[in-house]
């Protein structure tokens, strides 16, 4: 039984029905806001497509399903553009690999996640493959910025739009995940469900969850700046910058009338009195700049953050 988020189910069923009736387009483009689960949905769809059985959902037991679960299926290829640009050589190699007859089942699948990361040549190579589809070969693309894809690619795909879930659904789903209750207290950081889940998977739940209280304590003069930054190192400094920037962002929004998470209220009350809105915005920009400079400079990151927090 698939443990898939409720808001992804209608999209999954839609494609399963098309698959079962042999009326599925050979190219799918899954779109939606960042963090709503396009990639998770795509992985489920790919499993269904690779199953050898003539049924809507993957059986989980056939040879193909077993190979998919072991991540060793020879007729399935994936390119992920999350961390870096997808280049034309990668696309050409993959198109060449899947141009052979299927080795196991009947279908072959190419999954390209974060497809907006394809450069122009890579996108053209994908377009060419879509224009001359190989038999029983499916392309599944995901993108949170589908309008930046070539219109000619979009027009050749069946569009599957993942809806943005409401907060009640997100909370209920988080409740079924490890650390769910703590993750539900991090809506000041993000309301993207799969971004929250990835924080848990990287063992960073506590890092973020502890930040508001540490900051409140620092602003009250109880904890020194060094206490707030205890545990910061080159591996997690970006998380601290993200967390602090998110808190400042919430405070800036609150100053214009948006509601604020109650855990941030004492921080807002102190900062708005002490710094004022203009300085708050400067501090926010300074944190963003520090984050983007982290990779480029050799300055000690803890010294930089200490200097930043000393001005709060
Ligand atoms: Zn199967």
From TrEMBL:
Entry keyword set: DNA-directed DNA polymerase, Nucleotidyltransferase, Transferase
UniProt-listed GO biological process terms: DNA-templated DNA replication
The EC number(s) this enzyme carries: 2.7.7.7
Reactions catalysed, as given in the entry: DNA(n) + a 2'-deoxyribonucleoside 5'-triphosphate = DNA(n+1) + diphosphate
Top EC category: transferase
Entry's Gene Ontology molecular function annotations: 3'-5' exonuclease activity; DNA-directed DNA polymerase activity
GO cellular component annotations of the record: DNA polymerase III complex
Record PANTHER family: DNA POLYMERASE III SUBUNIT DELTA, REPLICATION FACTOR C / DNA POLYMERASE III GAMMA-TAU SUBUNIT
Protein name listed in UniProt: DNA-directed DNA polymerase
Organism: Marinomonas rhizomae
């Amino acid at each position: 039984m698939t443990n898939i988020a409720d808001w992804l189910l209608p999209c999954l069923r839609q494609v399963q029905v098309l698959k079962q009736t042999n009326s599925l387009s050979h190219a799918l483009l899954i779109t939606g806001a960042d963090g709503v689960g396009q990639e998770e949905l795509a992985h489920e769809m790919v499993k269904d497509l690779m199953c050898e059985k003539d049924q809507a959902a993957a059986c989980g037991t056939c040879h193909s399903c077993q190979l998919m679960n072991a991540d060793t299926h020879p007729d399935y290829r994936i390119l992920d553009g999350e961390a870096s640009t997808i280049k034309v050589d990668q696309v050409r190699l993959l198109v060449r690999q899947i141009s052979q007859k299927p080795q196991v089942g009947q279908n072959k699948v190419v999954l390209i996640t974060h497809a907006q990361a394809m450069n122009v040549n890579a996108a053209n190579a994908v377009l060419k493959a879509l224009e001359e589809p190989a038999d029983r070969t499916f392309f599944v693309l995901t993108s949170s910025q589908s309008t930046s894809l070539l219109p000619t690619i979009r027009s050749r795909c069946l569009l599957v739009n993942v809806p943005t879930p409401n907060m009640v659904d997100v909370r209920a789903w988080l409740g079924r995940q490890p650390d769910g209750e703590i993750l539900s207290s991090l809506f000041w950081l993000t309301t993207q469900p799969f971004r929250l889940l990835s924080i848990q998977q990287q063992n960073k739940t506590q890092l973020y969850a502890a930040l508001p209280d540490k900051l409140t304590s620092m602003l009250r003069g109880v904890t020194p700046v060094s206490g707030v930054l205890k545990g910061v190192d080159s591996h997690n400094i970006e998380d601290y910058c993200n967390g602090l920037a998110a808190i400042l962002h919430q405070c800036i929004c609150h100053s214009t009338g948006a509601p604020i998470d109650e855990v941030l209220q004492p921080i807002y009350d102190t900062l708005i009195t002490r710094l004022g809105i203009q300085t708050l915005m400067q501090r926010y920009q300074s944190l963003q700049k520090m984050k983007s400079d982290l990779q480029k400079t050799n300055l000690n990151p803890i010294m930089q953050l200490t200097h930043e927090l000393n001005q709060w």
